[in-house]
Amino acid sequence: MAGPAAVLTALRTLRRGSLSVRLRASHVCSPPWSAPPARALQLWPVLCAGHNKWSKVKHIKGPKDDARARVFMKLTMMIKLAVKEGGANPDMNLNLAQILEQCRSKNMPKASIETAIKSASKPLSQHVFEARGPGGCLLLIEILTDSNSRSHQEIKRLLIKNGGALSEGARHNFNKRGMVVVPGQNIATERALELAIEAGAEDIKETEDEEGQPLLQFVCETTDVGKVRTSLQNSGMQITSSGMEFVPRVVVNLNEDLLIAASTLIDALSDYPDVVRIWDNIQADS
């Protein structure tokens, strides 16, 4: 039987972005004629909203100041959500501690962070809207609000104005998965696979942050986030974020015109203050 080192040696001959190897939980490969239950370890192309699949859309990257303001706004919402779910003490709330690390890495003002934590004490409710957009793409829109009716009406208005609509059942096209994200600079494909094998991750995705910097997303069971995070930290990786994500089961390919329409819709939704995060199943035509 071949061990992980042999697997990684063989993978060096494969094209980047099309890696797929079936592994036992014990990290030992088995021949196809005697394959027991196994998990797939894959390096996926980018599928997530707001990343390099939008590279064809010229207007998607606005001025840096606008992008910076949007990042701070979303981090503020994520702080409020983390405090709502686990309390205001980062020593007792791992999710909040991770978000505060992100805030510091993005140079978010300390006063803004403290204000966000204090304002999270106000009664807020969390909700995920299901929607359909241009070209039949599907969206999940997470909000944090003090008025469900107001947010519902505004999300509905923004969808209709930009070629979308609320669509019950869209959530069924997504799987809830754990996600641990690390910076992707100077990490070779073979090293990324080694890290995934050691951590017990299922998939790896290459993506970018709002400023175009490369990221690696290690996908795992929601119950394994802590284990994968610890393993990556022990391997010297800096954790950008960790938590739950919605990963699409099936993606929809959009041409350039539809991609522009979809990005316009997602921009409009993202600019609404109650929106925390948006997931989609969009893939740009090659």
UniProtKB/TrEMBL annotation:
Its main location: mitochondrion. Residues 126-282 form the TACO1/YebC-like second and third domain. GO terms for cellular component: mitochondrion. GO terms for biological process: regulation of translation. It is found in: Mitochondrion. Keywords: Activator, Coiled coil, Mitochondrion, Translation regulation. Residues 52-121 form the TACO1/YebC-like N-terminal domain. HAMAP family: Transcrip_reg_TACO1. Acts as a translational activator of mitochondrially-encoded cytochrome c oxidase 1. Belongs to the TACO1 family. This is Translational activator of cytochrome c oxidase 1. It comes from Takifugu bimaculatus.
